[in-house]
Amino acid sequence: MSAFKIVILPGDGIGPEVAGAGRLALETVGDVFGHDFTFEEKMIGGIAIDTVDDPYPADTDAACLAADAVLLGAVGGPKWDLKPKRPEQGLLAVRKSMGLFANLRPMDVAPSQAFRSPLKEDIVSGADMLIVRELTGGLYFGKRTRTETTATDECLYTVEEVERVARVAFEAARKRRNKVTSVDKANVIETSRLWRETVNKLHAAEYSDVELEHALVDSMAMHLVTRPKDFDVILTENMFGDILSDLASVLPGSIGLLGSASLGSTGKGLYEPIHGSAPDIAGKDLANPMGTLKSVSMMLRHSLNLSKEADTLDAAIEAVIKAGILTRDLGGTASGSQVSKAVADQIRIQANVAA
Amino acid sequence: MSAFKIVILPGDGIGPEVAGAGRLALETVGDVFGHDFTFEEKMIGGIAIDTVDDPYPADTDAACLAADAVLLGAVGGPKWDLKPKRPEQGLLAVRKSMGLFANLRPMDVAPSQAFRSPLKEDIVSGADMLIVRELTGGLYFGKRTRTETTATDECLYTVEEVERVARVAFEAARKRRNKVTSVDKANVIETSRLWRETVNKLHAAEYSDVELEHALVDSMAMHLVTRPKDFDVILTENMFGDILSDLASVLPGSIGLLGSASLGSTGKGLYEPIHGSAPDIAGKDLANPMGTLKSVSMMLRHSLNLSKEADTLDAAIEAVIKAGILTRDLGGTASGSQVSKAVADQIRIQANVAA
Ligand SMILES: [Mg+2]
Ligand SMILES: [Mg+2]
């Protein structure tokens, strides 16, 4: 039996509902597999601005830094659009404080769900990839200049920044199908040549058991649409990762099934669904908890090293989808709490099956 | 009757075959509509390296600068992979000498061809867009630095560079469905804020009759896959345009039907299919001339201001596709010259229909 300290940041809109579903899944996993999860709920985003005038209060920060992993619901909403402090600042602050430099975005299309995809079913059915995006460097965080007639942005990468995120990708590949596709534009830009050299060196020195290939960003955009099944882990710098992970996110035909993780060098991480706070349906028990449950599965696997438990949760989620217990956004009639409860029940069933 | 000087650069591999098809189409258009096209064939790329040891000989340059428009077949091939001079240098040289700063990449999916697309037919059938990409600035041409442990690339844009390519997009929109979607990342980078401000100012001052919307590059990548029919002209800077035009190019399911243009400020331009030199099938009359014929249609429209003639050629191409006169790459059995001849015949038929 292991003990884990989990901080939950429910946030705004549908955040509390989906975070609650995540907590129930963790409690059930703890119960079934004999782990001791302790939970602390803290404020972030709009609710924190409203309550203590700070999107990322100091006690939230202290709790996150002391936790084994953090689960976030969602932040933001039109309510805070015209306010000086923005809910999204809470998200940037927690990422920065926890030193999170790798964003993990899995995308998979179960055969039973391929009909939802904008792609033809035979192309996308069974696709299962993980995009590992560098989160703190590159053009988005570079020096900028501006005059009346010109503007510049600088893209900067260091060997160390590339190495640490590449390490995350290689480690993730070892837990998956053992293949990394590293994306760059090394035929044109210098930061991409540094990127490719660094990835190659690290691969040769420490990860030669993992299959490594390189792809140019423009080719990769094409591959995601024409042969998404050919990829396992996709490693990429910040801006290319922004574009490619958003492109990949539309392939399942619904973002309601997608989770994400942001990791630092300690293995601790922040887990959240990729959907937003959807204030229009908040409090109505309509929100789809599946993206959060997939995020919890990632937490089990990447921060808590509980891969059997993660497999069980994945199987439970898949079973509930197959049984057609789906929220409105997926064409079903179930409430969010019905889906959440069904997954918890399936965790118990799948654990017995697996045992 | 108008007179036009056309330079043809057949180039390497299948280049001469497809360029020949382009010439036949122009000759037929001239014959039917009473225009006087004169043709000059010049060397570029690998053949020019082999013959005069220069991928872009001076007399080719002089002819291109004196021409009303230039039609290029294709350059390059493995034969020159290990040579010091590269065929592709010819392409960069002609673009630079002619001052070509706007790359136009149309993408359309006729309903009869939607079955080829990786996208579901209802999503893509009838899509018809034109991507206008800035071709000489941004990260790909910026200052670079490199040390053992760091690398940088600079992205620079000036108001003048943005204005001149935006003008091409607005003018093209007026000849199409009168809508421009300008792509940037203005929520994060400075060059994108300059881009958006400049596009907005030019729109207000000179093109307020054209509908203008803005999209972030990551969102645009998603839109291309989920709702490609919603776009007419897409305007974007160099690197975003590289990624998005390649992404768009896979939507028809074959690159054999796609042409392109590169334009400067005088209206003169370079026209070429987007496919490569395909040396493996060169000289066998298997190459699909349709990408070149679409490029010729763009030449008629954008450089020669012959829109009725362009419409006729487009209709001729569509009629030949509908009749199933297709090369192997499109699942047909016709030779390249059979397709070329069929389009020429259809130009005569369509011109009479239209008259
Ligand atoms: Mg994004
Ligand atoms: Mg490209």
UniProtKB/TrEMBL annotation, chains A, B:
Mg(2+) binds at residues 218, 242, 246. InterPro entries: IsoCit/isopropylmalate_DH_CS (IPR019818), IsoPropMal-DH-like_dom (IPR024084), Isopropylmalate_DH (IPR004429). Pathway: Amino-acid biosynthesis; L-leucine biosynthesis; L-leucine from 3-methyl-2-oxobutanoate: step 3/4. NAD(+) binds at residues 276-288. Its cofactor is Mg(2+); Mn(2+). It catalyses: (2R,3S)-3-isopropylmalate + NAD(+) = 4-methyl-2-oxopentanoate + CO2 + NADH. Substrate binds at residues 95, 105, 133, 218. GO terms for molecular function: 3-isopropylmalate dehydrogenase activity. SUPFAM superfamilies: Isocitrate/Isopropylmalate dehydrogenase-like. Catalyzes the oxidation of 3-carboxy-2-hydroxy-4-methylpentanoate (3-isopropylmalate) to 3-carboxy-4-methyl-2-oxopentanoate. The product decarboxylates to 4-methyl-2 oxopentanoate. Homodimer. This is 3-isopropylmalate dehydrogenase.
